[in-house]
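Example record

The entry below shows one chain as it appears in the dataset: sequence first, then structure tokens.
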Amino acid sequence: MIGQRRHFQVAHRPRNDDESILPLINIVFLLLIFFMVAGQLSAIDPFEVEPVESAVDGQPGPDEFMVIIGTEGRLAVNQDEVDLDEMAGLVREHVERHGDAARVRVKSDGRAEAVEVVGVLERLREAGIERIDLLTVPEV
């Protein structure tokens, strides 16, 4: 009938506790994805190294084999602290596996004695490495 008011009844659904927690779960997953994208995971060096500065700006290649030279004669291969002879043995194994494509990245502390760094580089050459990348940070 025209002009007559109709009354509709809205059916209320019973309250479900799972629906109230769903927005919280969505926010937690969004935060997790944000930190995964924004964060950077990297291996921690076995000892503190202050990198050498240089005017050349370049990106390091894939992390395959890294020699870390610290102060006071400390030396590490990848994440294990070793001495010079152990390093030479590991480098020879690396050369046997990769042949001419074998390359080593060297990360030296800027406070390390130049003589020690040159000595390590010479041992790397003697072990058969032809390509050595010296990692530095850009000058400010």
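Notes for this example: The chain has three helices and six strands. Residues 30 and 36 are 10 Å apart (CA to CA).
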